Amino acid sequence: MAGASADPAYGLDFGTGAAAPDPGLYNEDLAPVPASRRDWSWVNMSTVWMGMVHNVVAYEAAAGLMALGLNAVQSLAAVAVAYVLLFLAMWFNARPGTRYGVPFCVLIRSSFGPRGAQIPVVLRGFCAIFWFAVQGYAGSMAIDAVLGTLFPAWAHLTTPILGMPLKGWLAVAMFWVLHAWIVSHGVHRIRNFELVAGPLVIVVGILATAWGLHVAHGPGPLFDQPSRLHGAHAWLTFAVGVTGMIGIWSTFAVNIPDLSRFVRSERDQVIGQLVGLPITAVVFTAMSVITTSATILKFGHPIWDPVALLLALHQPWVLLLGGATIIIATLSVNVAANIMPAAYDLVNLMPARLNFRSASLLVLGIGLLFAPWLWFKDADSIFKVLGAIGGLLGPVTGIMLADFYLVRRQHLAVAELYTYSGRYRATEGWNFTGIIAFLLGGTAALIGNVIPALSMLGAFSWFIGIIVGASAYATLAHLLAAPEPNASRRVAGDAA
């Protein structure tokens, strides 16, 4: 793209006399998606979310909440509150993506500067690749379990290689190839895959729920268990559960513009997220509780792990159908929630060398370097690392919201997001307002992990990070406000 002044096919018009896009900030994958190419309807947006919330972590979420002492109804209420709050954050943070057609890694330049933006972009990319590796390995375990049941000889492939048996490597290779096939034709193949994957998982979930209702002759024993908590302790535990549920998707609240930039209207974006996020998540969690209730009556103890449940049923056809569903569900969440944002982040780092397809394949390779099979031996370490990173991304969400709604008043000079000389350049490309707000918000979000006396704050790190990050950014931006560019430049920028 070196030397390019504009690319009308991608909706970018710099106007007469404006600076050309810098090749270090621009290529076709980072360019605004023009209105003619924004063809995702609310159905596409909702099925993408369906595919993401239907995963093993979400299935087992109710188990974690009930382990805290909440009963089934309280757990469902906690899930509902968490996903409604997430929906609100993602709705507002998705709007600039829908309005201007640009991804997160470009939007963040408004508040951090074109060079300072690399800080949150690299942080989000690291987290996405880490989650991809963890989810990818979990999916490969489902492949291993299915093949081990269908083909007895599979269980004998136990030669250890770099800490993992041969059959594990073969399962990982199969799962990685499936990922590569889905992302090989870009975002539109991802959209089409999610259009099938999301509803398919719902259908299988309905079948599992019907089985559970039949075995338990109703909602089941889990719904009969009373809460073990009362009074203030119950409310505090409920709040901790809500925050924990939000933590699963807090990182995606940052880069929701990566998806919303393809949606054809604000109405489609809102309806799609409403159907796909809070509504589907609550229904899916209820399905998991009912199905697990049936396992108490059938096996004498609850089985929350869907792979373990499939193995316990000893029905090859059920194992095949259920295993395939788990694999598809894991593929679905991994592609949309992890590979896609990580690919955009890598493209942002090297726009002259990478496009979305090559960056997606690079994510697959980097994911193996994380050696997730070794991390699984100490699962607590995974969530400590990812929890800390997620806590740092809460302030980024708050800064993005404050920048777009309070500072920019929902107006961006899009063309100037692609140059080092525009109104967003700040100090040589570094906007210290955003960086300082990020440091303050990150410190507040993670201080509970450092000071034992404040450990309780760690349960609310996402909320603290958003509030402190947004407040600090809005305050500093007001105190350090620069003169507004003249009207002609603003109109030209907004028109792009």
Automatic annotation (TrEMBL):
Pfam short name (any one): Transp_cyt_pur
Q: Which UniProt keywords apply?
A: Membrane, Transmembrane, Transmembrane helix
Q: Key word Transmembrane helix present in the record?
A: yes
TM segment ranges: 76-94, 121-154, 166-183, 195-214, 234-254, 274-297, 317-337, 358-376, 382-407, 428-447, 459-481
Cited Gene3D superfamilies: Hydantoin permease (1.10.4160.10)
Where is the protein localized? Membrane
GO CC terms in record: plasma membrane
Q: What is its main location?
A: membrane
Q: Name one GO molecular function term.
A: nucleobase transmembrane transporter activity
Under the heading InterPro entries, the entry gives:
Pur-cyt_permease, Uracil/uridine/allantoin_perm
Question: How is the protein disposed in the membrane?
Answer: Multi-pass membrane protein
Record has Hydrolase as a keyword:
no
Q: Which family does it belong to?
A: Belongs to the purine-cytosine permease (2.A.39) family.
Name of the protein this chain belongs to: NCS1 family nucleobase:cation symporter-1
